[in-house]
């Protein structure tokens, strides 16, 4: 299964200057729970924003740079590789974790989207991918707990592609 995983503000911002413009520990916990022990696929800038590969995951970078080599990271140059993995191992969940251009490329091949929707507007330069809601079904919605550590109203949403 190919899944997109991202947090987006009310105005669809997902990033600003290669960082998340908010701090939401519950979303980071959700991300860790979903991706630990799994494959995460990202663009080079997303990897750089994390200061290197994440532990306990298979880290894959999608890049056009044929010469790029990064220690402990698998390099691919086309999402068709992920489609092939998905056909070979349909029981495995592959997580697309950013950035904006990678999400845009992945929406047409994705089976599921996990979106943490933050009910707040933020300045940004990277935005959530557009998708046709008629092709997707909202299958889960859970309100996050707002507190001093998580100062915004937010929701964990799961969309599954309609057959």
Number of strands: 10
Please tally the helical runs, counting DSSP H or I stretches of 4 or more residues.
4
Strand order of the largest sheet: 5-4-3-6-1-7-10-9
Radius of gyration based on Cα positions:
15 Å
Structure write-up:
The protein has 163 residues and is α/β, with parallel strands linked by helices. It is 20% helix and 32% strand. It contains four helices and ten strands. The protein has helices at 25-35, 44-49, 80-88, 100-106, and strands at residues 2-9, 13-15, 39-43, 58-62, 74-76, 94-96, 112-118, 126-127, 136-143, 154-161. The strands form two sheets. The protein has an eight-stranded mixed beta sheet, with helices on both faces. Strand 3 (39-43), helix 2 (44-49) and strand 4 form a beta-alpha-beta unit. The longest helix is centred in the N-terminal third of the chain and has 11 residues, at 25-35. The chain is globular, with a radius of gyration of 15 Å. 28% of the residues are buried. The mean pLDDT is 96.
């Amino acid at each position: 299964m190919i899944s997109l995983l991202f947090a987006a503000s009310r105005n669809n911002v997902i990033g600003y200057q290669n960082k998340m413009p908010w701090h939401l520990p519950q979303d980071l916990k959700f991300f860790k729970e979903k991706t630990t022990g799994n494959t995460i696929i990202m663009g080079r800038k997303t990897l750089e924003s994390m200061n290197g590969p994440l532990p306990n995951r298979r880290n894959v970078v999608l890049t056009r740079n044929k010469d790029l080599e990064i220690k402990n990271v698998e390099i691919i140059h086309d999402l068709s590789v992920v489609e092939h993995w998905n056909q070979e191992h349909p029981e495995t969940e592959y997580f697309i974790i950013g950035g904006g251009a990678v999400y845009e490329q992945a929406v047409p091949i994705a089976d599921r989207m996990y979106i943490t929707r933050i009910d707040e507007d933020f300045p940004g330069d990277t935005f959530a991918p557009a998708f046709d809601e008629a092709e997707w079904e909202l299958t889960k919605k859970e309100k996050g707990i707002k507190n001093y550590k998580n100062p915004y109203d937010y929701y964990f949403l799961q969309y599954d592609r309609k057959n």
